[in-house]
């Protein structure tokens, strides 16, 4: 029987409080969604196994606290990450304006060997919210930012409707594996 070496990929999910980081992970790993908001305190991870190019990989996805007062661990555990997932809420402009900050803070603490080549991915979450004019950040604006940050892949998602969640994390696994 062919033996398969298992690869562990460490992924860090960052973004402002309330954008849906925990919800996206919970939808992806447990296929569950809750309307109720419960702030993440500190950091914790979920794991998911998947096959990428016939390679068995374990994604270790770290959920983090968006609220500053709950960021007890600092950024020390960013070290050794293979991919950083940045999340904002397409309906709340300021959650997009902080993306530069999260991006730069991540690189500062993770200190990867080549910061210019470190893989990020951007998720614009809560695209299901559609009450006519709730959208604050256009797809084009998000894409332009991604291009300016050395072509970060961009996905629009809904943790609530399970829209694009699998595809987004599959892409995370692929680029993390490529980097690892
Ligand atoms: P912190 O842990 O404080 O950093 O927040 P978070 O980014 O983990 O946000 P969380 O996943 O807890 O979601 C915040 C709120 O938004 C919750 O009430 C969720 O039910 C809701 N929510 C998350 N994702 C979606 C989505 O795709 N659509 C809608 N409509 N609501 C969502
Ligand atoms: Mg959370």
UniProtKB/TrEMBL annotation:
SMART domains hit by this protein: RAB, RAN, RAS, RHO
CDD domains: Rab7 (cd01862)
GO molecular function, one term: GTPase activity
Gene3D superfamilies documented for this protein: P-loop containing nucleotide triphosphate hydrolases
InterPro entries in the cross-refs: P-loop_NTPase, Small_GTP-bd, Small_GTPase
Domain of life: Eukaryota
Keywords from the named record: GTP-binding, Lipoprotein, Membrane, Nucleotide-binding, Prenylation, Protein transport, Transport
Location (main, coarse): membrane
UniProt GO BP: protein transport
Location of this chain's protein in the cell: Endomembrane system
GO cellular component, one term: vacuolar membrane
Membrane topology designation: Lipid-anchor
Family: Belongs to the small GTPase superfamily. Rab family.
Full protein name: Ras-related protein Rab7
Taxonomic classification: Eukaryota, Viridiplantae, Streptophyta, Embryophyta, Tracheophyta
